[in-house]
């Protein structure tokens, strides 16, 4: 159990409710008992068993109140959790210092009534994944990559989840038949070299279930790397076992992207989980989401990135919060992200600086957003600035050494200008291979069709 955080700050002991009920883990992995056991607390041996953690997740407002009696006078969360399910592993609940929204772990794990307040520009699927789904359960957006929805289950349902519309609404996993259809699609599209296993959280699957997916995808010769997107090292580090690592090693190259948002999540357990994966030869990246009141101060992201690199996890992306229903209270201004990036540059090595991206609405994909380092340009010099504000003239190569220069074509279609005052919200390239495929294959796809 965790008693200290990586930052040296004292962490409280896991809160123990008045009545202790110990439940056996389910015999075959992560199937959720229904109803879930009431009280998530057990002996240290059970505590370290990931199946026990799964079986004893906090799933209902009643269980939440028994764990945090100080919430008794708050709102009734029943309608909220029936719309957006709740699950919190006892481990992750033990990281909560105070049961109020000032605590970052509390905010990320415990439902808040603000989730029901949605401005009209939000949507359940702002990234339009459902429309880029030529096979149910597989998103094909970029030419060389595809994403497989392996399960709709997570050990902890993050309140800021971008797939809130599916995560936990039914706890299911991909069927053999669906996996076969996906493998056939990959076979027919050899330009796909990189397959991301996502969900839900694929590491909540039993090891044999996950192995079935990895081995089938590995059989497609054109697939070069397989990536797993998971928050398990953060919210259920007990799941990273020797057995799991041994299985993963058989299917290398496997990369894992995890999802730490706050330095308080860097505990002895979670860092050990990362180290076990790194020792198994898995390159680790981290994808954080910029969340208001949680990690939207530059110093917090700096501490997080330092801690990640120290544990062999490369900060990969810092995401602007998506325009998804139920998460508006977490959204910051874009300018906040740019300020953070401005702060990090020069203070941290490039290795520790993530790329700040907006995953664009309308299925536009990830767009990097940076402070402006290019001040101005002439044919002979480019003026750059560094993080201190120093301006440097960078001399361009002489024309005679450059060969013929292609003249830029005149702009023929107006467009971006109209977006500045809101007359137009999207410009789509009509000749895009992806959009053509989308029109042909999945005019009205449904993400939840991907699992059975
Ligand atoms: S683990 Fe990932 S998919 Fe699951 S709720 Fe959290 S962000 Fe969503």
What's the SSE blueprint?
Layout: H1 44-47, H2 50-55, H3 61-67, H4 78-83, H5 90-93, H6 104-109, E1 138-139, E2 145-149, H7 176-188, E3 194-198, H8 207-218, E4 225-229, H9 232-235, H10 242-249, E5 254-258, H11 268-279, E6 284-289, H12 298-310, E7 313-319, H13 334-344, E8 355-360, E9 365-368, E10 374-377, E11 381-385, E12 391-395, H14 399-402, H15 416-420, H16 433-441
Parallel strand pairs: 2-3, 3-4, 4-5, 5-6, 6-7, 7-8
Antiparallel strand pairs: 1-2, 8-9, 10-11, 11-12
Helix pairs in contact: 7-8, 12-13
Iron/sulfur cluster (SF4) binds next to loops.
Would you mind describing this structure in some detail?
The protein is of the alpha/beta class and 452 residues long. It has helices at residues 44-47, 50-55, 61-67, 78-83, 90-93, 104-109, 176-188, 207-218, 232-235, 242-249, 268-279, 298-310, 334-344, 399-402, 416-420, 433-441, and strands at residues 138-139, 145-149, 194-198, 225-229, 254-258, 284-289, 313-319, 355-360, 365-368, 374-377, 381-385, 391-395. Helix 7 packs parallel to helix 8 and helix 12 crosses helix 13 (334-344). The structure holds iron/sulfur cluster. Iron/sulfur cluster binds next to loops.
